[in-house]
């Protein structure tokens, strides 16, 4: 195989733009849609709609077992690694669109919450780092049809950047696990 073609193929692969399109609608039912694209071509698409027949109550024993198996120190070390290396800068926010409809049984409560929420959101949008990328619409419905929130966002990164970030986070997690194992060994040796 030609080494120049191999080098060009590797550079093209690492420079491939990856975009994540996510949308969530919360209202009477929860619906979501996630689409992952590489170089503008979709290669993963998931849709979901909340189905009440599949819901089951959560048992406290299951939650306790899940929390007990999770290692918070490893997660904290991975987050410190991401923050210290500033890996979050590798993902770029393209746009966020928020559509909210407030509707309650009491019209006065709807009007008050609408004005308060709109004021807070407009202030946050003006003070944000991405004022042109945040767009939205809010409306008040006085017919008590139910409140609804719709959020759609697009995030982009390069495949090579994501691979680098995954390698850095995996290394940080391995270091955290090794340090924790060393601490456990020292504690065990000191007690015996």
Features:
single chain; 192 residues; alpha+beta
Query: Largest sheet, order of strands side by side?
Result: 3-2-1-6-4-5
Secondary-structure element order, as H and E? HEEEHHEHEEH
The poorly predicted ranges are: none
Amino-to-carboxy terminus distance: 60 Å
* Strand fraction: 25-35%
Mean pLDDT: 78
Mind telling me the C-alpha Rg?
23 Å
Write down the oligomeric state.
Answer: single chain
Fraction in helix: 40-55%
State the helix count: 5
Taking the sheet with the most strands, its summary is:
6 strands, mixed
**Secondary structure category:** alpha+beta
Coarse morphology: extended
The count of β-strands is 6
Q: Would you kindly provide a written description of the structure presented here, covering whatever features stand out?
A:
The chain is α+β, with helices and mostly antiparallel strands. It contains five helices and six strands, in the order αβββααβαββα. It has helices spanning 3-14, 60-69, 72-85, 107-127, 159-191, and strands spanning 17-26, 30-38, 41-49, 92-102, 134-140, 148-158. Strands 3-2-1-6-4-5 form a six-stranded mixed beta sheet. Strand 1 and strand 2 form a beta hairpin. Helix 3 (72-85) crosses helix 5. The longest helix is centred in the C-terminal third of the chain and has 33 residues, at 159-191.
